[in-house]
Design goal:
Rossmann fold; 6-stranded parallel beta sheet; 2 domains; alpha/beta; 15% strand; elongated
């Protein structure tokens, strides 16, 4: 009788967050795979993240739907499913379970219920830091934060570059949608999961018109639920834009974006997608955390912290530089009379 093959080392990553949060943690997952090439690595995440996880089979071997937990706002907790989840993940337990959700408040105790052989991640107080837990570094970029955790755990992690795999199937699917795409075009993405993070539609409309006056077509992007805000943007425009909200899934959105000359958006998931695809962007940060969430490559992307002094002139100038990067000639500086023609916009 032949001996059974040894079971692979099992690693779980807990990060039950949205698209942008996950993309920012991919460099750390890449480093983890390089350190554990033969391990089975599972991502425990929100159910909607399954497709994204499937795009990184070289880093993630499996995906586990997280059923929610009291105090975590991303989803409504299901107590019965959580008990089942705990039971399944305790037998057998993870050899290493990484808490990459946040500072550890709530989730560290929750993950202890899974009885992993080793639990590691972030903790919320310096006094709690040890070989397994790193005091949560609050004032650095999200990507750097997770790389710092890898380094704390003895894993070489020096590459912060983000990535996203656009497949041939994504591009074929985009073609079958027969969208009226004429290059060069710029994607304008006015939506965001949090309303407080949305730049006003009237401003997006003004900048979309600026794109058109510089020779670009404009494609409004977003989910089906963001169709109305895109229509509001279109209603503020003098020119014509194509509203693609609700027509694309994640893959076709990425295929659409990779063909764009640039992107104008809120600081939300698509800004991280543009960073991963290396598409030039202007990102409006409404939450005052551009250092944490803005794209790291400041030569390719500009993040404007609207909380430090809103003013359309700053965005206009950034769009001009985006046009330069796309090989277009920016129009003359935004004039006082142009600013006055757009309701709610001040020339500051």
């Amino acid at each position: 009788m032949s001996a059974q093959s040894p079971k692979p080392f099992r690693i779980g990553i807990f990060r039950a967050l949205q698209l942008g949060d996950l993309l920012c943690s991919i460099p750390a997952m890449r480093a983890l795979r390089q350190a554990y090439p033969a391990a089975r690595i599972e991502l425990i995440g929100l159910p909607g993240a399954r497709e994204l996880a499937g795009r990184f089979p070289h880093y993630i071997d499996g995906f586990v739907d997280f059923p929610g937990y009291p105090g975590l706002p991303e989803q409504t907790p299901d107590a019965a499913r959580f008990r089942q989840f705990v039971s399944e993940k305790r037998d057998p337990p993870y050899d290493l379970l990484l808490q990459m959700q946040g500072n550890g408040n709530i989730v560290n105790d929750m993950l202890q219920q899974l009885a992993p052989t080793r639990l590691a991640g972030f903790c919320q107080a310096a006094a709690l830091q040890n070989e397994n837990f790193l005091f949560y570094p609050a004032d650095i970029h999200e990507t750097e934060r997770h790389l710092s955790l890898m380094v704390h755990l003895g894993i070489a992690a020096k590459d912060p570059d983000m990535e996203f795999n656009v497949t041939a199937a994504d591009r074929r699917h985009l073609t079958t949608l027969a969208l009226p795409l004429v290059k060069p075009y710029i994607c304008v993405h006015p939506g965001s999961r949090g309303v407080w993070r949305q730049w006003p539609p009237v401003y997006f409309g003004a900048m979309a018109d600026l794109c058109i006056s510089n020779g670009f077509k404009v494609v409004l992007t977003g989910t089906k639920g963001e169709h109305s805000i895109a229509e509001e943007v279109a209603g503020h425009m003098r020119g014509q834009a194509f509203n693609a909200c609700g027509l694309t899934d994640l893959g076709t959105l990425a295929a659409l974006l990779e063909g764009a000359a640039g992107l104008l958006c809120n600081c939300t998931g698509i800004s991280h997608l543009a960073a991963a695809l290396r598409v030039p962007s202007v990102v409006i940060s409404m939450d005052g955390e551009p250092g944490r969430w803005g794209p790291r490559n400041t030569e390719l992307h500009e993040t404007i912290d609207w909380t430090t002094g809103p003013g359309i002139i700053r965005v206009h100038a950034a769009m001009g530089r985006l046009f330069d990067r796309a090989g277009q000639v920016p129009r003359p500086p935004f004039q006082d009379e142009e600013a006055a023609a757009v309701p709610g916009i001040t020339n500051r």
